[in-house]
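Reopening this ticket.

The earlier resolution said the output was attached, but the attachment link was broken on my side. Pasting everything inline this time so it's all in one place.
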Amino acid sequence: MNVSFSWDDSELKKLQQYIDTLSEQHEVKLADLLTDNFIRKYSDFQTLQVLIDTSGIKNTENIGNESFSIFVSTHTNFTSWEEMVKVATAEYVKRKLGD
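Inline output:
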């Protein structure tokens, strides 16, 4: 008795292509990583811009320094800037996989 079947693996191929792309190094805009929805969900603020403005940093090069990380631990659900970025990155990848 022979049983045969066929299936459409185009979605699986797309997923594999995306996974291959993720393994490469990418630059992601901070606003794409820390969306307003993410900021509202995990912080005291409504937007990334308000969070940055309230932090008192003078330029974006200071994002991630020790005083900014302390600010993040005080005004978000995270203990540090590094933790915030890790969670934001995971959520970013989930959003991209869902596309």
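Reporter confirms the inline version is readable. The chain has a mean pLDDT of 88. Residues 81-98 form the longest helix (18 residues).
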